[in-house]
Amino acid sequence: HAINRQEIIDSVYYGFASMPLVSVGEENSTYDVAAANALLDEMGMTEKDADGFRMVDGKPFSILLEHGAHAPDLGPVAELVSEQLKEVGINLQVKAIDPTLWGQRSDANELQATMFWSHDQGWDNDHTEGAINRSGRNWLIWRNTKGAEGGEPPQWVKDAFELDAKRWSSVSGSDEFNALKEEQYAWSRTNLPVIQIVETVKYPMIANA
Hints:
Radius of gyration: 18 Å
Oligomer: single chain
Number of helices: 9
Shape: globular
C-alpha cells in the first residue's frame, strides 16, 4: 500500500504498464499510506528515530535491496520505491551489484531483498515456483533435493508446488490447464510471495518494415 504504482507507471514506463491485478489484486494494488502505516503499527513498529524511520526494539530498522542489471527498469523502480517507503518510515537502502554476483547471492540465499522482473504472465509458473525461488530460496532447494537440503516450507508453499505439478501434467491451453493457471494466480493474490509492482509492460521495438 505504500507503493505509488501509478507514479512508477507514468515516470518509468511512460504509461505503458498496468496495475498488477492478476498477481497482486486490486485491493493490494491500492496506494494507501494510512493503511500501510496501520499495518506497520499493528506489527509493533511504532517507535521512530529522529528522521522518522521506524525502529525495532530501540534499534534502527532498514532493509538492503540489492539488484542486478538484468533490465534497465530495475534501478529506477527500486529507487522510486525506496523514496516512497520513506513516507511510512521504512528505510530501504538500494544497491546495484554485478548480475553474476547477484546470481551467486541469490543462490546462497543471501539477499535481504531484491528487485527482479516478473511483470507478465508469459512463464507458466512465474507466480508460484518462480516467486518462491526469489522469496524463499531454501524452500525451493528443499523441494528440488527432496528434503535433503534447504528448509521445509509451510503448507501454503507446498500448495504452490502441487499446483505447478498438476499444471505441468495437463495439456497446455486445455480447460484443465487454464483452470489451474487461474488457481495459481489466486494463490499469488492470497499469499503475496513477492510484491508485484506492475503488469503488462510494453517495450518499444524497432522492426524493418
